[in-house]
Amino acid sequence: MPTPQIAIIDANTLACIGLRSVIERLIPIASVNTFSSFQSMKESGDAEHYFHYFVSLQILLEQTQFFLQMQHKTVILISGAASASLIPKGFHTLNISQPEGLLIKQILKLHQSGHGAGHGHHPIPLSAKESQRSWSVWLKDY
Predict the structure, then answer these.
(1) How far apart are CA 43 and CA 109, in angstroms?
(2) pLDDT tens track, the chain, 142 positions
(3) Residue 52: how many other CB atoms lie within 10 Å
(4) How far apart are alpha carbons 99 and 72 in whole angstroms?
(5) Cα–Cα distances in Å, from 42 out to 48, 70, 84, 91?
(6) What is d(CA 75, CA 35) in angstroms, rounded to the nearest whole number?
(7) What does residue 34 show for φ and ψ, rounded to 5 degrees?
(8) What DSSP line would sit under the chain, residue for residue?
(9) pTM over 0.85
(10) Fewer C-beta neighbours within 10 Å, C or N terminus of the chain?
(11) Burial class (CB in 10 A: 0-12, 13-18, 19+), 57
(12) Is the CB of residue 47 less than 8 Å from the CB of residue 41?
């Protein structure tokens, strides 16, 4: 089974680094690449080969046509409920302004709901409770 690749595309470098760290911790089998722009992802040569795209609302609005074609693989990074009204129907969203525990739960829920039986790879082996406990232990180091 190939390693699932995830792209994070956002001009906010700190947001990219933080989200990459969270995803790598929760989904250790994934390879996560970050890009500051859609163009830099296209120049990497693998734009259509990602299992998932986590993109800022700005990137979505600039490259709507591409992400409409990849809608089932795309998660839009939003900041609160207000920006959700700008997103076309059918896209998954991730509120990056919510408390850390809720953010982690939402990522786990997105991962587990999108990768049930028949999606080609196994869901996260830990239960949500075990993963949260593991996450809490990991956070104590920081």
Answers:
(1) 31
(2) 688 899 999 999 999 999 999 999 988 999 999 999 999 999 998 888 999 999 999 999 999 999 999 999 999 999 887 677 778 888 999 999 899 889 899 988 887 776 544 344 444 444 555 545 554 444 443 3
(3) 24
(4) 26
(5) 9, 14, 26, 21
(6) 15
(7) -115, 145
(8) -PPPEEEEE-S-HHHHHHHHHHHHHH-TT-EEEEESSHHHHHHTT-GGG-SEEEEEHHHHHHSHHHHHHTGGGEEEEESSSGGGGGSPTT-EEEETTS-HHHHHHHHHHHHHHHSSTTSSSPPPSS-HHHHHHHHHHHHTT-
(9) no
(10) C
(11) middle
(12) yes
Distances (CA, A) of 137 to 24, 25, 120, 134: 16, 12, 30, 5
Distance CA 71, CA 123 (A): 20
Both structure tokens of 94: 């991730």
Encode 14-28: b = buried (16+ Cβ within 10 Å), e = exposed.
Answer: ebbeebbebbeebbe
Residue showing tokens 């082996």: 125
**Helices 13-26 and 128-139: angle between axes, nearest 10 degrees:** 130
Residue whose structure tokens are 């593991």: 134
